[in-house]
UniProtKB/TrEMBL annotation:
One of its GO terms (molecular function) is hexosyltransferase activity. Residues 6-167 form the Glycosyltransferase 2-like domain. InterPro entries: Glyco_trans_2-like, Nucleotide-diphossugar_trans. Pfam families: Glycos_transf_2 (PF00535). This is Glycosyl transferase family 2. The keyword Transferase applies. Keywords: Transferase.
Length: 347
């Protein structure tokens, strides 16, 4: 039987996390899938861990050298045969009903090309902290995607194959036919660059599922922690987007940059970099003061957290942080429940 879903998991030096990621796929209530593990030149025991797990739905594809997430995902797509393509980073995990709910969503919504879910944050050690990514789920335009990126992370999206085929291109630096979907020049921001190309150049829509079906691991050692490299990659994405969506960028570039700086300020806060977070927030407000009016709560919370982290002793800041996360997490759970999500789906 041909698998209906192809799950693509890039694997690179994640020996402590990849087993949990794989098992979260194998435990899916929807079972008609294939899992393609793309070993992207790992130098630790990641490949050994992958080979130790035996399931007929697993295939392993090897890169002889590290090429990055974009190349690993492209390799996985080229080897896949499913109607839907799901991406899971090898340090994240899924709720057991993740695939079932996305297949239902895409089956019932023929104009939706990208289906994503809310995400629940995990600590570095894999403990769910009952705090959630709460993006806009419907009515998403290319402008909103550019400014907010509602997908939120690389493990939340499930995409139709037809959608990816509509933005497929041939890499010019390869002599043979080499189909690409993600731009392999990007080591970061490769996902939003791909989503934006879909939203800005095709008729496909993007919609989210209210349930937090993706478990996103927070890490100070991961790719996302290198804030300046992440900003440089985002700017590279903006430069490329000017080529395929010039009117969109002319109207929304500055707002998008301000929101990106606010996002990076939150990353700096998680990494304990209060002074850096303040600089990023001040720069964001100088570029586009409107973010304070358009998203007053999120902007003020980020700015307050940055100054508290900078001013308070670390232990005292942690107390305020835990109190804030508790009340915000509770409010988020209430909102998710009001969106019709069953309690069994709220981690």
């Amino acid at each position: 039987m041909t698998p209906r879903v192809s799950v693509i998991m890039p694997v690179y030096n994640v020996q402590h996390f990849v087993k949990s990621a794989i098992h979260s796929v194998l435990l899916q209530s929807f079972t008609n899938f294939e899992l393609i593990l793309v070993n992207d030149g790992s130098t630790d025991k990641s490949l050994e861990v992958c080979r130790s797990i035996h399931d007929h739905r697993i295939r392993i594809v090897n890169h002889t050298q590290n090429k990055g997430l974009a190349a690993a995902r492209n390799t996985g797509i080229r080897h896949s045969i499913g109607r839907y393509i799901a991406f899971l980073n090898s340090d994240d995990m899924w709720h057991p009903d993740k695939l079932k709910m996305h297949v239902k969503h895409l089956s019932q919504s023929p104009k939706v090309g990208i289906s994503f879910s809310r995400s629940s944050f995990m600590s570095h050690k894999g403990r769910l902290i009952h705090f959630y990514q709460m993006p806009q789920l419907t009515g998403i335009t290319a402008a909103h995607l550019l400014c907010r990126n509602p997908v939120g992370n690389g493990s939340a999206a499930v995409i139709r194959r037809e959608t990816l085929n509509d933005i497929r291109f041939q890499a010019l630096n390869h002599s043979e036919n080499y189909s690409c979907y993600f731009d392999e020049r990007f080591r970061q921001s490769e996902d939003i660059e791909c989503w934006l190309r879909i939203m800005a150049t095709t008729e496909w829509k993007m919609e989210g599922i209210p349930a937090p079906l993706t478990f996103y691991r927070l890490s100070q050692q991961g790719v996302s922690s290198n804030i300046m490299k992440q900003l440089a990659s985002w700017e590279m994405m903006i430069d490329k987007a000017k080529q395929f969506a010039p009117k969109l960028l002319k109207r929304h570039e500055q707002d998008a940059r301000a929101y990106q700086l606010r996002y990076l300020a939150r990353q700096a806060i998680r990494n304990g970099q209060g002074k850096n977070a303040i600089k990023l927030m001040n720069r964001a407000l100088m570029i586009s003061p409107s973010i304070l009016m358009d998203e007053t709560s999120r902007t003020c919370i980020t700015l307050t957290a940055a100054y508290l982290l900078w001013l308070l002793p670390s232990a005292l800041y942690k107390v305020f942080e835990h109190i804030g996360q508790y009340f915000m997490g509770h409010a988020q759970k209430v909102r998710i429940s009001k969106d019709g999500v069953k309690s069994s789906l709220i981690s």
